[in-house]
Amino acid sequence: MPPVPVRRATxxxxxVLLALGALSTCFAPYLYPELEYRLHGRELTVLPRPTxxxxxxxxxxxxxxxxxxxxxxxIGEPRYYQGNYSYLILGERRAVLYDAGxxxxxxxxxARSLTSLPITVIPSHxxxxxxxxxxxxxxxxxxxxxALRERVRDSRLTLERYEFLGFVQDLPTPSFxxxxxxxxxxxxxxxxxxxxxxxxxxxxxxxLSLYDTQNKQAFVGDFMYPGSLYVFLPGASRAAYLATTRRxxxxxxxxxxxxxxxxxxxxxxxxxxxxxxxxxxxxxxxLVGIQRxxxxxxxxxxxxxxxxxxxxxxxxxxxxxxTGFPWNNR
Length: 330
Fold this sequence. Notes:
The chain is of the alpha/beta class. The chain has one domain: Metallo-beta-lactamase, Chain A (4-Layer Sandwich), CATH 3.60.15.10. It has helices at residues 4-26, 28-40, 108-112, 146-149, 161-164, 238-251, 277-292, and strands spanning 57-58, 64-69, 72-77, 84-90, 95-98, 119-122, 139-143, 156-158, 175-177, 180-182, 187-189, 194-199, 208-212, 217-221, 228-231, 257-260, 274-276, 311-316, 319-323. The strands form four sheets. It has an eight-stranded mixed β-sheet with strand order 1-2-3-4-5-6-7-10. It has a six-stranded mixed β-sheet with strand order 11-12-13-14-16-17. It has a three-stranded mixed β-sheet with strand order 15-19-18, covered by helices on one side. Strand 4 and strand 5 (95-98) form a beta hairpin. The longest helix is centred in the N-terminal third of the chain and has 23 residues, at 4-26. The protein is globular and about 80 Å long. The termini are far apart. The relative contact order is 0.13.
């Protein structure tokens, strides 16, 4: 038997390791982006031009413009490693740019080339890959919630570290002027076209979607897209995801098309990523299955994990859901 001092040292070491393990699982949503950045470094941001089919036209060597209908344009960044899409929504008097681009290249002249109307830019949420041009159009709007309002100074908002997450790309934390606050369940009149503002927490607490009831179009950002849904980073909540999913299912016309923020990975063609209400129903089933412990996890190639975090579950087709542990991702 080892001497008493050795046994005590061993037990103390084990206690420290157990304590560190417990802390790491509690703070996993914050440790994940910090450790991923340090372990894997900065991602290759700009990719080669895709070789798959492209819907729409190249605006330069980076952006793709796809016309959805006479008053709606999808502006894609297929060379950005996350394949982001923003949407320019036109009325008769004003336009809305839903999501502000990644900032890797300047989306402002692209949007300006499509309309002479004044443009209000509003982000689906405040992660670094959706806020590139905030403060750079005629007006900038945000979801009207106290968590954002109370931080404004001199009409400017400075984003917080884990709200923005831009450190994973070595990006400086932005500050921008906020001109308009759009209340949840309010209606924005663009002139001949009306958009309903929806608070859609789950991915982040202040996520926002826009619903055009007349045209049966919902612009949902990162709430759902043809890829792995991130429900494990700071501020994410499975309970909020489920509540939002059920609210959308009760609200949306069954024929509504869901225009999302990230395109499907190759070999899928480059096009505006669109899902259906049936995919929302599948999401509800998966969230309930996770809640009940009846849904088995998947292993997704290309999604980094640290100590089995996050856990990935099937939803529908290319849609999966990556979530945290029950105690830090309720």
